[in-house]
Design goal:
Blueprint: E1 3-7, H1 9-18, H2 25-35, E2 39-42, H3 53-59, E3 66-71, H4 75-84, E4 88-91, H5 107-123, E5 127-132, H6 139-144, E6 149-153, H7 155-162, H8 166-182, E7 186-190, H9 198-204, E8 210-213, H10 215-224, H11 226-237
Parallel strand pairs: 1-2, 1-8, 2-3, 3-4, 4-5, 5-6, 6-7, 7-8
């Protein structure tokens, strides 16, 4: 079964609009766990416009599931990782001002810089996943520099799905997943996956270990509730 890690960034973004503690990020984490989610994901950015560093410290002791922390390995981020010691760290090459992640790592240009960072994260006891485009030449490089997994950036697939081009896109991701697995990497996936497009993706690109879903899941929860929405994802994943 592919595991579900729920990204709580959008809960924090709404909370920050009024800054009165509503909705509670910690209560959202508890609800997701009670509904059966296998993990919780957060992506603290330098400006803390959604998840704050203080949120990460508050969430950690509550968890009975895996904790995945995403982000660009800036110095403050690395300090957080050493202190929190999450189960997984997903390194993402987003710029500080980006509204959301929009590309995977270019390991030809940036791989050497990531080697000591990956080593430091592993020394903190965390599994390392690299956010990657479905590029057959780039993905094996993730193994060479020490990563344990890749997270396939699925926004292009989600866009293709809405445009009726899902089949061609899924084949590309299936090939990328196969290349990763042949290189000895585990495969995660995430970005713009939702209740409508998730099944098609997983049927076409099997053996995905984990999906990280936030924006769509929280949006869908506005209509049908957070617990029910998490369970709907789990039904698809099973």
């Amino acid at each position: 079964m592919t595991k579900l890690s729920v990204n709580l960034n959008k809960v924090a973004l709404l909370r920050n609009q009024r800054d009165i503690g509503i909705p509670s990020v910690t209560e959202a984490a508890k609800t997701c766990m009670e509904a059966g989610a296998h993990g919780i994901t957060v992506h603290p950015r330098p400006d803390e416009r959604h998840i704050r560093y203080s949120d990460v410290y508050e969430i950690k002791p509550l968890l009975t599931v895996e904790f995945n922390i995403e982000g660009n390995p800036f110095p403050r981020f690395m300090e957080l990782i050493r202190e929190i010691r999450p189960d997984q760290v997903t390194l993402v090459p987003d710029d500080p001002g980006q509204s959301t992640s929009d590309r995977g790592w270019d390991l030809v240009k940036e791989g050497e810089r990531l080697v000591p960072i990956i080593r430091d994260i592993k020394n903190a006891g965390a599994r390392v996943s690299l956010f990657m485009d479905p590029d057959l030449e780039q993905i094996p490089l993730a193994k060479e520099i020490g990563a344990d997994r890749v997270e396939l950036y699925t926004e292009p697939y989600a866009r293709a799905f809405t445009e009726g081009r899902a089949a061609d896109s899924v084949r590309r991701y299936a090939a990328a997943a196969k290349a990763a697995q042949e290189a000895g990497l585990g495969v995660n996936a995430g970005h713009d996956l939702n209740l409508k497009n998730l099944r098609t993706f997983l049927e076409g690109a099997p053996a995905v270990l984990e999906v990280s879903i936030g924006h769509a899941l929280i949006a869908e929860a506005l209509w049908q509730g957070l617990e029910r929405t998490v369970k709907e994802y789990l039904r698809i994943l099973s």
